[in-house]
Amino acid sequence: MTQTTYDVIVVGAANAGGFAAGAAAEKGAKVLVIDKKSSSDHLYRNTIASVDSAAQKRAGVHIDKRELVEFLSAFAQDNVDQKLLWTWVNHSGEAMDWLEEQVLKTNGDHLHATGDAYYEHLINKAFPSGNEVTRDEKSWDQGWGKYVIQKDRDLGVTFKYRTKLENLLTDAQNRVVGVRVKDTETNAISEFTATKGVILCTGGYGANEALMQKWAPTLLQKNTYTQSPRDDGSGQLAALAVGAARDDEPASIIFDRGAVPVGTNIDDYYVKDWKSHQFVLGSYPLLKVNLKGERFFNESAPYQFAMNSLRHQPGHLEVMVWNQKTMDNLQQFHTLGCSRLGWPGIFGADGEKKLVQQYLEKGYVKQADSIEELAHKMQLPADQLQKTVARYNDLCAAGEDQDFGKESYRMFPVDGGPYYAVTLGGILLATLDGLHVNERMQVLDRNADPIQGLYAAGNCAGGFFWGAYPDRVPGLTASHAVTFGRLAGQTVLA
Ligand SMILES: Cc1cc2nc3c(=O)[nH]c(=O)nc-3n(C[C@H](O)[C@H](O)[C@H](O)COP(=O)(O)OP(=O)(O)OC[C@H]3O[C@@H](n4cnc5c(N)ncnc54)[C@H](O)[C@@H]3O)c2cc1C
Question: Which residues does the UniProt record annotate as the domain FAD-dependent oxidoreductase 2 FAD-binding (predicted)?
Fold first, then answer.
């Protein structure tokens, strides 16, 4: 007979869910994990932040906790819960150590701590927070999600895929006592009971345009793609139906590298496609102009700032302009996280050249022998683009960006063809506003009282981010998910 009663039910089998299930099972709980899709291991991410992990200690990386919390709360103008920030800095190292000791080592992997976080200007203040899963110190092991799920199974956790949470079951006191689920292949409905609690780890809502319109309408003007096509917000809606409160302002993680066809109108271009449209070079601080051909901001800033600046520009898209010489001198545009040049970044200089070639073939990148010809191909006013490039080259020659203050070492002239350009918009990686939770990851109602039996972690939980993602703390979203997932799995039994 199928078992229908568990101690703990985790909804969502990716980052937060995998860590929540393992933590509860380690404490002896009978755990069921459900996920609406057929797999989830590929969603476990490359770069995971922490403070004081064993890997960071081995690498001599030290981060001042107070300084980091102050940075995160200032970045969000304190529209966050400082208790959650402190909870994260105090527990993230332990979550990484569990991953390395209990999961990675038996599979031949380890964590590599990235120690460099160079910045010259305050806008780029950064922390060396990243841990990367690797076997050979040359590349990521992107299959590590499989190891977490196997570890959970070894601890006795049951996984049911193609099983979607429809709604939460409550008793007469509004305590959450289980889940009502749908088999996504047969549409059969069933119920499972949780004696200790249900932990929601269902991610964001960026693939649900109706919820985007309601909770974060400006994100539809900042993004051309979403790369989380399963994020339908259903977990958050289930919690709201039993009285949960949620953040009332949006937060998100956006990459400034969504290459789109020339002439795209962002108002009717929001593509939900798992296939990557990431034109990685777009996150490098090369010359960028608005659709009038004018430079409009300091390109050397956190990824998401470009998309915020574009809200004040016509058409909300930017055009990046560069030449062949730039491609041969990319080292000075090396930044953090996955726009590092070389591992642990996505590409090296040769990879970027191949990418440009691919997008030339697709017709998104245009090539020309003069700026005037390039402007015509990009549908930009040629006179203005010529003026902008000439001014930029003068600033490069002067060695000082008197217009926007980009670091001098990144002022590389665009003089001499062949010239290239591409139109870019945002890629929404995830929404980050969510359900109100306390430091035990209990979901709160509008009085800030816990809804008994209900927990949340990862992108379906809020209070941690506001507005733009602080990408100068590389790996923070994945770490927020796994650290708080692990905490939820521990506290549900406490
Ligand atoms: C391409 C890409 C690369 C990224 N790289 C990084 C990185 O290197 N570092 C970093 O810090 N962050 C990265 N991120 C962001 C990071 O992936 C997320 O912030 C993090 O994965 C969130 O984890 P989560 O567990 O909350 O949600 P998810 O990983 O999105 O998992 C949610 C799970 O819940 C399931 N689910 C949803 N609704 C239901 C339901 N109703 N019933 C049952 N199951 C349900 C989904 O199928 C999914 O498996 C990246 C994001 C993308 C898109």
Answer: 7-470
Q: What is the pLDDT of residue 274?
A: 64
Ligand 1 center–CA 384 separation, angstroms: 42
Question: Which residue among 9, 10, 15, 271 is best mutated to probe the pocket of ligand 1, counting the most ligand atoms within 8 A of its Cβ?
Answer: 15
Ligand 1 contacts CB of residue 478 (under 6 A): yes
Q: Are residues 377 and 481 in the same domain?
A: no
> What parts of the chain have a pLDDT lower than 50?
1
State the residue range of the domain holding 286. Answer: 252-428
CA of 203 to the centre of ligand 1 (A): 5
Kindly report the pTM of this predicted structure. Answer: 0.97
**Residue 240 in domain:** no
**Is any atom of ligand 1 closer than 6 Å to the C-beta of 13?**
yes
Residue 202 CA: nearest ligand 1 atom is: 34
Q: How many angstroms is it from 144 CA to the middle of ligand 1?
A: 14
Whether 13 and 61 map to the same domain: the answer is: yes
Task: Provide the β-strand partners of residue 438.
Answer: none
Among 72, 183, 477, 482, the mutation site with the greatest number of ligand 1 atoms within 8 A of its Cβ is: 477
Residue range 298-354, pLDDT digits in tens? 999 999 999 999 999 999 999 999 999 999 998 888 888 878 888 888 888 888 899
CATH number at residue 343: 3.90.700.10
